[in-house]
Amino acid sequence: MRVAFKERIALMLGLDHKQIFNCKARDCMSCFTANRFKAIELLIWKVEDLPSADLFAANNVFVEVYLGYNETTRTRVHNNAGSDCIFKESVQLNFDELAEMPEGFGVSVSELAGSALKLQSPKARDRWTACGALAKLGRGALESDGDGAVASALRAAARDADATVRCEAARALGQVGVLASTPELIALLSDEDDGVRWGACEGLGNLAPASAAPALTQALEDEYEDVRGAAAAGLGKLARAGHAAAGADGDPALGGALGPALVPLLTDEAWTVRRSAAEALGRCRWPEAAPELRRAREDRDPRVKQAVEAALQALQAVAGPDAA
Questions:
Q1: 70-98 in b/e burial notation, b at 16+ Cβ within 10 A?
Q2: Residue 292 domain-assigned?
Q3: HEAT repeats: which residues (predicted)?
Q4: In contact, 202 and 173? CB cutoff 8 Å
C-alpha cells in the first residue's frame, strides 16, 4: 500500500504534517509501509537545485532518517528511474503499541508468497525486486514465514551471482530480521562489489549482532566512502542495541570496545563518513571521544557539525557537563 509520506507520518505521530514537515518544493517523498511499528522504507526524490537542507525540518524523526546517508550516490538506480533518484533507505520507527492499528495494514500471505516465488526467477531483475519487496514487509515477513522458506530464500539470494541481487538480499535480511544470516552478511563484507559490501553493512546494522563488531570495524578501512559510512553507522547501531540490552545504565565497556576505531573517521575525506562516525560515537556513549568531537566542531560541513553537537550532547547526558 502506498501512502503519501506527509499523511502517513502525520497518521503515525498524531500531528498535522505542517508541524513536522517543511519542504519548499512539491511533495518529494513517498512512504511504503507494511505494518505499523515495523520498518518504513523511504524513497527520497531529488528536486532540481533544491538544497538538501530544505528537505527536512529540525525534527528527530527526519534527522534520524537523513543523517548518515549520501544523497547523491547512496543507491543504485533501478528501473530507469533516472537522475532524480537520490537514495532509498529503511528506518525503524517505534510508536505507542497501545494505539489503534489503522485498517488495511499488515503482511498478507499472498504478498509474501509472491515475493518468495520471484526469488527463484531466472531473471536477476525479478530476484532483486523480490528482495526489495520483502525488505518493505519488514519484521512482519518473518513473523508470517511459518516454515522459514522466505528466510532461506533470502539467505540463498545473498550468494546470488548477480551483485545487485546480493546487495538487495543483504539489506532485506537486515530489514526482515533474519539473525541467523549474520555469518553470510559478514562474509559479504569481503565481496568484490562495493555495493554488496555496503548492503552487508546495512544488513548487519539493522540486525545489530555483537559478533559483527570485528568485521564492521575492519570495513571502516574500505576504499569506498559509502562502505566506510555504512560500517560506522552499523557500529553505532550495534552500540545502541548493546546499551539497550544492558539496561538503563548501558554497558560501560561497549564504548571503549567500539569507539577507538571510529575516532579516525572524524577526519575522513568524505563528509558523509565524518557524519556517520560522529553519530556512531554518540551512540557508543564513550566519554573519551569528547576531545576529538570537540575538535570536529570546526568541520567545514554544517551537516557534520550538527552530528558532532548531537554526539556531544549524548556524551554529556552520560558523563556530565565536562563531556561537552
A1: beeebbbeeeeeeeebbbbbbeebeeeee
A2: no
A3: 181-218, 289-324
A4: no
Same domain, 156 and 101: no
**Residue 86: which residues within 8 A CB-CB, separation 6 or more?**
44, 45, 46, 71, 72, 74, 75
| 288 pLDDT higher than 70 | yes
SS3 label, residue 12? helix
Q: Do 140 and 180 lie in a common domain?
A: yes
Which grid cell sits at 26? 512539491
Q: Please list the residues that pair with 41 across neighbouring strands.
A: 32, 90
In a domain, 113, yes or no: yes
DSSP at 101: P
Does some domain include residue 148?
yes
**Do 114 and 100 fall into the same domain?**
no
Cell matching residue 224: 569506498
Task: Choose one of 105, 134, 154: the last residue of a domain.
Answer: 105
**Does some domain include residue 240?**
no
How many Cβ atoms are within 10 Å of 163's Cβ, its own excluded? 18
DSSP result, 216-253: HHHHTT-SSHHHHHHHHHHHHHHHHHHHHHH-TT--HH
In this predicted model, what pLDDT tens digit does every residue of 4-43 receive, in sequence order? 444 444 444 444 444 333 333 223 333 333 333 333 334 3
Question: What total number of domains does the chain contain?
Answer: 2
Cα distances (angstroms) measured from residue 160 to each of 55, 113, 134, 151: 36, 20, 16, 15
pTM, rounded to two decimals: 0.67
Q: Are 308 and 314 in contact (CB under 8 A)?
A: no
Q: Give the range among 116-130, 213-227, 295-309 with minimum mean pLDDT.
A: 116-130
The residue out of 79, 105, 131 marking a domain boundary is 105
Q: Give the range of the structural domain holding residue 99, as residue numbers without chain letter.
A: 1-105
Quick one: angle between helices 109-118 and 149-157, nearest 10? 30
CA distance 259 to 255: 5
Contact 213, 185 (CB under 8 A): no
List, edge to edge, every strand of the sheet that includes 2-4: 2-4, 29-33, 39-45, 85-92
